Batch of 2 targets.
Target 1
Amino acid sequence: MVALASIGDGLSRCLTTPPVEATAAFQQNAAMLHLRDISKSYDGQPALSPTDLHIASGSTTVLIGPSGCGKSTLLRLIVGLVRPDSGTVTFRGEPMSAQNILLARQRMGYVIQEGGLFPHMRVRDNVILMARYLRRDTGWIEARLEELTDLVHLSMHLMDRYPSELSGGQRQRVSLMRALMLDPELLLLDEPLGALDPMIRYQLQQELRAIFAGLGKTVVMVTHDIAEAAFFADKLVLLRSGRIVQQGSIAELARSPADSFVTEFINAQRGPFEALGEVLA
Amino acid sequence: MNSAHLAWPCRPGHAVVAVVLVLVSFCQGVASGAEQVSIGSKSFTESVVLGEMLHLLAADAGAQADHLRQMGGTRILWEALLSGEIDAYPEYTGTLIQEILKGQVVDGKDELREALAVHGLRMGPELGFNNSYAIGMRRERAAQLGLRDISDLRELPDLALGFGNEFLDRADGWRGLQQHYSLPQADVRGMDHDLAYRGLASGALDATDLYTTDAEIAFYGLVALADDRDYFPTYQAVILYRADLQDRSPEVVTAFSRLAGRIDAAAMSAMNARVKLEGVAESRVAADFLAAELDVQAQLVGRSAWAGFWRNTREHLALVGISLSAAILFAVPLGVAASRSQAAGRLILSVAGILQTIPSLALFVFMIPLLGIGGPPAIAALFLYSLLPIVQNTHAGLEDIPSPIVESAAALGLPGRARLRLVELPLATRSILAGIKTSAVINVGTATLAALIGAGGYGQPILTGIRLADTGLILQGAVPAAALALIVQGGFGVIERRLLPAAAMDTKAG
Ligand SMILES: Nc1ncnc2c1ncn2[C@@H]1O[C@H](COP(=O)(O)OP(=O)(O)O)[C@@H](O)[C@H]1O
Ligand SMILES: [Mg+2]
């Protein structure tokens, strides 16, 4: 077991660490995000053990693993909501620090399970808050708002409601609009569909994938559902107890699992999902 | 962007600052004035009547005089005189020796004058009466038992005695008297002093303690037994004034000295009775006395009930308005600071909590050495008293914001101050407003105590009403104070509904 895990670790390092002699230009083009030796503990309990991760521009990466394995912590470290105990996050070739994190966040969009909409603001104000704060042109803001409303299939008249007056699915669409408002290069989604009922969830999965494909953005998404992961991912990153166990396509994980946990995790959710069968075929 | 939410933290802020500045300048305008002579009086009728006399005499002598009526007890008047807040007030030699200069051996009037000179104070001539403790009985009862002196009580061990609780407890009260005269009475009860008078009237009691100038002496037909073995210290009424008054307004000091020896105990008791039992204004009683005895025709400025009411209202609103505005300006940032760091939070909340545990009356009195008497110390005390609910509710309101909302605001790239202004404070508004409402209601009620340190307000008629046992007068202060508290409460309800639409405050549906 131990041997297998360390092989898996080594494998993942090989896969994710770019060659040392990579040029800055290469990093800018290829590496949207690069986590090096990043770790975080809460009260002495490691939530994330020292981890390396490389996210290529334009790719969709899905973080997956059992509840509590550190997926959200990883995402929070990227967006700087949590300070790492060790290691660095490099975003578009630049190491993140307290000085540049605010600017960096404006080039990231972050969506969480509960939506995190501001209850005291109308939907419209939620979406355009940051653009307003940055004093973007009013015409531009209006145009962008309409464009995003179309993109997420919401009607304009919902813009004047408060979040509490929307359904769960509508709230997640608004949350996505807010994340996309400033046209970020990187989208970070933490179980964006986790709180929705299956029908809505299925519909939004389809729409989201179409949106990602159309926008060509770099996406890092968290889910604990292997079928959803397979549906979205160019690359899956499977975590367990704060460590990356294996990363690669779903086919790679299924065909050459790094250890028995990988197989168990895939098989545990395999049965009912046709989508998974399609992908594996 | 809903402009109401964005503008919230700045607009009321400016208004509050403006209000504070206006009110502060208003207060200073009232308090300043170059050639003024300020008279003070303690919180009982006799002192107020004598204070009115000094006030009228000073005005008659050409000074721009005012009278801070019933400012409080001995300590407060003494401190006010030392600090120059007032220039003169009526005092008693016994009080000076027993209470104020306690610990110093002061023997005789010359030594007393010397001791006062050290403090930059002078003592005018005695006014002519000794307001001391005495043992009083109904005139017929005393005649029936053949009693004239306190010594005579030794022969009658079965007399029923009832004393005010203070007299019973004091070492120099009943216990000392009993020893001094070897009195045998065992049936001795402590009670409220007013009840003791009624006990005498009904025959349930034979004798009680009284002051030699009490209004009740005339009313109940009482007689004071002579202190034939000189047990009670003398409490000669005198005028105490600042030494610098002699230089600033010698005419006023001369005018004061005209009272020397002019008021005997019977005259004082009669004047007290006119105020307490007939409800005549102290200024009227004082003016009548001056006209009859000194041929001073005083100009009484008639004050209608309405004028008094508006004045109390103005003062009360100023006390509440300034102290509450200042408390909001301080407490909201403190609450924010408390929610930013755990250590700061613990410190801030516990200090504010400790302030709240100080009894409000004590807090008012603590302010006197620092800020004197009148508006400023009262406002400072009310300010301190108003902090805790606002700090606590600001802190709680910010802590209660669900973390996904806080994180979402941060993840947008908003700087901390913008997050606070745009997201966190608006979401904490309900809680902050509730804190301000609590503070405001407490403040309106507590401000009635400000009258005790000379700051006026609705407490003024309450205080006078208590002193004169005049329920109507008490209600003139208590009813508007209660109404103001209700108005404040209702006003905050309206603000809440205006500022916070129900759908907008549903934090569960993020
Ligand atoms: N703010 C926090 N304080 C203490 N422990 C935390 C905190 N956030 C996360 N953890 C712990 O870190 C571990 C990883 O959490 P998380 O990243 O949220 O897991 P996941 O998103 O994969 O379910 C869990 O054991 C969790 O209890
Ligand atoms: Mg999570």
Target 2
Amino acid sequence: MKSPSAHSQLPTRRDFLKSAAGASALALSIGFEWTASTRRAFGAPSPGPFVPNAFVRIGADDSITVIAKHLEMGQGAYTGLATILAEELDADWSRVSVESAPADAKLYNNLAFGPVQGTGGSSAMANSYAQLRDAGAKARAILVSAAAKEWHVPVNELTVNKGVVSHAPSKRRASYGSLVKTAITLPVPDTVTLKDPKNFTLIGGRPARVDVPSKTDGTAQFTLDVVLPGMLVALLKRPPLFGATVKSFDPGPASAVAGVVKVVQVPRGIAVVARNFWAAKLGRDALQVEWDDSHAEKRSSAAMMDEYRRLADQPAPSARKEGDARKAMGEASRTVSASYEFPYLAHAPMEPLDAVVKLDAASCEIWTGDQFQTIDQANAAQAAGLDPKQVSIHTLYAGGSFGRRANSMSDYIVEAVSIAKAYGADGTPIKLQWTREDDIHGGLYRPMYFHKLEAGLNAQNQLTAWRHVIVGQSIMAGTPFAASIKEGIDPTSVEGAATIPYAIPNIAVELSTTKAGVPVLWWRVVGSSHTIFAVEAFIDEAAHAAGVDGFAFRRSLLEHQPRMKAVLELAAEKAGWNSGPMPAGKGRGIAVAEAFKSLVAQVAEVSVDKEGNIKVDRVVCAVDCGTPINPDIITAQMEGGIGFGLGAVLHGAVTLKDGRVEQDNFNNYRVLRMNEMPKVEVYIMPSNEAPTGVGEPGVAPIGPAVANAVFAATGKRMHVLPFPKLGVA
Amino acid sequence: MSTTFTLNGQSTTLDADPTMPLLWALREVAGLHGTKFGCGMALCGACTVHLDGQAIRSCVMPLSAVAGRKITTIEGLQSKQAKAVQAAWVALQVPQCGYCQSGQVMSATALLEKNAAPTDADIDAAMSGNICRCATYTRIRAAIHSAAQSIKA
Ligand code: FES
Ligand code: FES
């Protein structure tokens, strides 16, 4: 199989030669704009391709090209989108490839949160399922009609298998490619009948990922790999404090470095534009900049956390109120309370942020792993002084993102555009490359939060009251999504907490939103990256106080939540929850979460050695994500989510000292490594419900499951993240 | 200044600053893009290549240091171990975002070229320098075992 975006955007020589239709694929793909005239133009060369809608192109050579409106950043979106469409099309999977859609909020709107073309909230499958089934089924209907027309037979006598239409009575067969020239003359039907899910062959099967071969032999194209004629490389020196600006700078020493072409000032700092990365790096190292710190954030994160602690005792807007939690707490026979502290977290995707921009007086072309195409298009246009229509975006693979590439400031793209503009907007392609230090220092972190919880139990050890106060910055404030903030509640600050699933008669969840000069952003699984930890660690403390096992306690409170109860039970059963106590120094913990409408339960088994080192040995994960589109990708996303979340709770923290970020690279912003990865078993609940997301939900329960396991092993609760070294803190 | 060494079996002379890290010389001078940049400080393994058969981090190796030596990148992998590793990577669907995977394949290949039957502890020792932010670690481990098996068979 051809690698999907390698040939969709910038073919390597190898891909180019491999591609049967090399030259024409290239001509059609680069700068491809979806317009009526292009669509007509596609019909012009003889024959085909057949382009029944914005999501698929069928070539006379039997190639099926699925147009992906979502970014492929590792989550398997390209394969999932192609699977849905190919299923209804009855395509031959081996002929399916994927290319990225051009930015277009109308055609490629994210139906989950648009009008925006963007990827996030684990929404790619959920918002595309009906859309791509329809697109595939309509394409199939036209191709079948084309065969009926060519053979003068009724449509209902035709069958399709793997892209071949057959007429059994006359023993005639035709591949989709051979029907293209007739298909392009036929109208698109208004309605079409979709398959009965029991006849699915690709959905729920294991079609191989379309991107794996090129990601195994090194030919996959990332932004890092883009080379355009005459391209220069830029590194940007940004202020050391958030909110600081350039006071003065001396370009001399940087300009003197061999290979440096220009030193330019842009709103975010001073850029060194050079012939290659190394020259840009040496030039930037040599730069002398004086900063104006007068409006900068100069606090330390520890001082901010002190303030958050105080705020947790002040009245705050209500995110959920049921019964009277305060009164019930007063009447409880016993109460327990705890607080949890969460640090800022960097996304640290493996590919440091990068973007290539080619800007001239009338157009701006952008190559990047773009996660927010139409927002980025608008921001780029504004930075360039152009109309959004003059900005075209080529979406490449992103080497991870975890939310970082979807930000409404389009920070890294706007930087690249502003550098190209300051350079002269003369059509010279410029690649802005962030280093890992730029990434760790660069802000747009998962916010820091303080959580305070209190629970009341009655004489029968039933949970009667629950109070939860959350303190931290808003992700949505000041963004185009700020309208989601209602009565002081940013839903992303409280999701998972305000939506606590347990049957408790008196619940109060409050949110105190803070302001800080540190820019923040959603981070994989968003609010549930902290709320689920607090809820699931604390419900365990409540269970312990009640003298009830953590699994049984949760289960008894989920009678009205059958899907959640079912994943909880499945995880517990597969993990052998009731198989008896674990040896000394080992423990089991459980947690469950709903995130982006998917339900995930995890059981973690840990060992804690004499020095207090925590090793997670095994994680059993049960997930209900509605109709499983590709079980192997679901499994991979659970495995990856567990590793990602585990790295954060064991090691992850961005801290500030007098406003300055104290971490720089993977030495002091630690992430999970091979030797720390547990064994993972994933069980997927069979379901015919509409599909829901899997890219993020697996992250949510792992932290509390491990914390609860550590308690089982040691009797110590984890109230500060990342986990302090046991016996030390 | 030019530096001459063997790159993927071919004698190659690159005209570049001798202090330039091999990573950038490979990428921007030789035009080989499979080797990736992740940290620039020998902390992540994305830039792993083979120097005389050993896995090394090309981001901290000055170009001048490879004069007269043999460098193999993902583009030049030929050994039966490399082929087995790549086949296992595809069979087990290891990559997610894929950005770290050239480095992972290079480290895994170097491991199998020295150790035909690595244990989990051997894999931890050889692979813990290669970060995967997508955390494909369980599949990497399984794929290394499976590649070792397939070579034996
Ligand atoms: S880029 Fe060389 S080890 Fe990270
Ligand atoms: S596959 Fe994404 S970093 Fe490894």
